[in-house]
Design a protein that fits this description.
The chain is mainly β and 349 residues long. Helix content is 13%, strand content 40%. Strands 1, 2, 3, 4, 5, 6, 7, 13, 14, 18, 19, 20 and 21 form a 13-stranded mixed β-sheet that branches. The longest helix is centred in the last third of the chain and has 15 residues, at 279-293. The radius of gyration is 23 Å and the shape is globular. The two termini are 20 Å apart. The model has no long low-confidence stretch (mean pLDDT 91).
């Protein structure tokens, strides 16, 4: 819930810390003149950004070094928090009248897993613990700062991945099979995943409420997409000669819903090919996908103060005439970084 200390005056400072390839701090970067960040777990590589700094002053090795971005609100009793650890990408040179600057892209540490692709086929054997397999795959890329919630789920039948598949794709497929989030990088640079939690069961992280202590702008926009909302979801595994395919089906037969079979008089179906460890798991997958896709997506775009929020957090927005609970889908901020922009997805009541 709201930290009231962040509702008042601040003396903010954005901190850019140069790290080595093992995320160990080297020094603070002090010539950053412009920058941007996008925190978006729905993008293929998650978070991204850019920054500009003086040429030759900071001694950055763009091939090996990394950068941690942190925010210090300058409020007594409130600690700074990290927004992410990034690799450098695609440096470019700009000449000014008095100096030269380097423009460089920032990419999530997920790029390490995405760039590490199989040289030959890889088999996850029957009986292998899925989370332990994920941890081993991540650590095989050289990334050791990883936390994944333990699980007792095991592979039902061997899973074969072809040569050329990225370790990121394999990790996310295995995590999906046990109902976990796809792997992400937290604000401190730790690769992490945990079981999926429905929006309605998540704790509220912040309340945006109108009034003298408001932390959001009074201007916002809302859009809703009503096309293609399914009322039936089918998840299926491939199956083998020894083990039949698993099929999970979730139906919207709620007569109150505009999108149910009763309301439409027909089925609108989405089919997903998945890996699953049990019938209960694949049933849960189908229910999750129906929940995510089976409601009209209403998104709200709003600007607010810089806050310790992350994508997937649950917030409340009360700004007349709107009062909704919503999950954070994306966070964006650009220099000088006085405000953040959030894309929120409404949670059905």
């Amino acid at each position: 819930m709201n930290d009231t200390r962040l509702e008042g005056a601040r003396r903010p400072d954005w901190v850019f810390t140069l790290l080595d390839e093992a995320d160990r701090p080297l020094k603070r970067l002090r010539t950053v003149s412009a920058w941007s960040l996008d925190l978006n777990p729905l993008a293929q590589l998650g978070d991204s950004g850019s920054l500009t700094l003086l040429v030759g002053v900071e001694g950055v090795d763009f091939m090996r070094h990394r950068v941690k971005v942190s925010y210090d609100p300058g409020v007594e009793g409130v600690d700074p928090w990290g927004l992410g650890v990034f690799l450098f990408a695609e440096p470019g040179l700009d000449r000014q009248e008095t100096h030269s600057t380097t423009r460089v892209g920032l990419v999530s540490k997920l790029a390490v897993l995405d760039d590490d692709k199989l040289e030959e086929s890889y088999t996850v054997p029957k009986g292998a613990n899925i989370v332990q397999t994920v941890l081993a795959l991540v650590e095989s890329t050289g990334e050791t700062r990883v936390t994944v919630t333990a699980s007792g789920e095991y592979v039902r039948e061997p899973i074969v991945f072809d040569a050329g598949e990225s370790k990121l794709a394999i990790v996310n497929q295995l995590l999906d099979a046990v109902g976990y989030w796809g792997i992400t990088v937290d604000g401190e640079g730790v690769l992490t995943s945990s079981p999926y939690v429905p929006p309605a069961e998540r704790p509220v992280k912040w309340e945006f409420v109108e009034g003298e202590h408001a932390t959001h702008s009074g201007e916002w926009s809302r859009e809703q997409d009503l096309t293609g909302v399914p009322n039936r979801v089918v998840c299926r595994t491939a199956g083998t000669d020894e083990e039949p395919a698993l099929v999970g089906v979730a139906l919207n037969e709620d007569p109150v819903s505009r999108f149910s079979f009763q309301a439409r008089g027909r089925w609108v179906t989405r089919v997903y090919d998945v890996e699953a460890t049990s019938q209960a798991q694949i049933n849960a997958m189908a229910q999750r996908r129906l929940l995510e896709a089976g409601s009209p997506v209403a998104t709200v775009s709003v600007e607010h103060a810089v806050l310790p929020l992350r994508p997937r957090d649950l917030v409340v927005l009360e700004s007349s005439p709107l009062r909704v609970r919503a999950t954070v889908q994306k966070l964006s901020v650009v220099s000088p970084g006085f405000l953040m922009s959030s894309e929120l997805r409404e949670v059905p009541a």
